[in-house]
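Work Package 3 (structural annotation) set out to generate three-dimensional models for the target panel prioritized at the project kickoff. During this period the team completed the workflow that converts sequence records into discrete structure tokens, so that structures can be stored uniformly alongside our sequence database. As a representative example, we reproduce one entry of 168 residues exactly as it appears in the project archive.
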Amino acid sequence: MRKKIFKGKVLSLSVYTLSLNGRKVTREVIEHRGAAAVLAIENGQVLLVRQHRFPHGYVLEIPAGTLEKGEAPKKCAFRELREETGHTAKKMTSLIKYYPSIGYNTEVIHCYVASGIKKAGSLQLDHDEIMSVVKIDFKKVLKMVLSDKIVDSKTICAVLAYTMKKKQ
């Protein structure tokens, strides 16, 4: 049984009552459509966004965003790259898919690697997005991940997955 507690623009919260191993249990679940994130590397430089993330302040992360209703993750990746960095890509290659908070959240993040990147215009931000674009050498980004200077989970997962796939 499901009881919806809250419905917002980006997520909702439900309480589920179910039976597991013959026991009645309840689970509080944040429901989210999912997101797409883009590791965009151009001439050894990673396109990152410096974005204000309340309550943590400004963080560096790869461009990403929530899937629109019915939107395919790859289409979202192309859209978010354009909106958040002003760049387009010829190709998006699937890199990794993961659940950032599997114990209480339905959100899945689809990470892609963008190739054939070119500047296409200015940023197209939502009214509540406060960000700027930063280009950093990939090796430096990897060091920033490993030294806790980049703490965003989608960026960490994408950078480490990309590093491991390059080594194979």
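DSSP finds three helices and twelve strands in the chain.
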